[in-house]
Amino acid sequence: MKKVKVYSTPACPFCTMVKRFLKEHGIEFEDINVQEDFEAAQEMIRISGQTGVPVIEIDGEVIIGFDEPRLKKVLGIK
Amino acid sequence: MNKEELRKLSEKYAKSKGFKLNPNEQIVDVILEGLLKNEKEYGYRYCPCRPVSGDLDEDRDKICPCKWHKDEIKEMGHCHCNLFVKGD
Prior knowledge:
The complex is a heterodimer. Chain A is of the alpha+beta class. Chain A is 40% helix and 22% strand. Chain A has one domain: Glutaredoxin, CATH 3.40.30. Chain B has four helices and two strands, in the order H-E-H-H-H-E. Chain B is globular, with a radius of gyration of 12 Å. At the A-B interface, helix 1 and helix 2 of A face helix 2 of B.
């Protein structure tokens, strides 16, 4: 199973959409609220090179924003 | 400031810069609520789609309209959090 992390904030609509998408496809993920965990926020900025959420990390591959085609490709969803 | 006042202020700002608020009202509602929540919590309307440290010097660029919104609208047609979109 791929290890999926979602860096998000509670008021970000695209974070909600990413998490809904993952749930709908039965993908387990770790939801990291960068509004409450500033160390995680720094890690997110380090791996993505920018400050916006959502950032999705799938087995080390980083996706910025709700990029559904890329999420499907990386997760092997048809 | 309440949500409707902030919506009007945001609309006025968008119009003055040649862009507009996202026509998807649900997205705008969530973003406005996030901005007001950040204002209540931190004293400034920080973008709700970016992590905030609580240190104004560090977070100044994230106050809405953020430092990056014009470039993002130019490049992607919308700002990162989708409050502002390209004008007609």
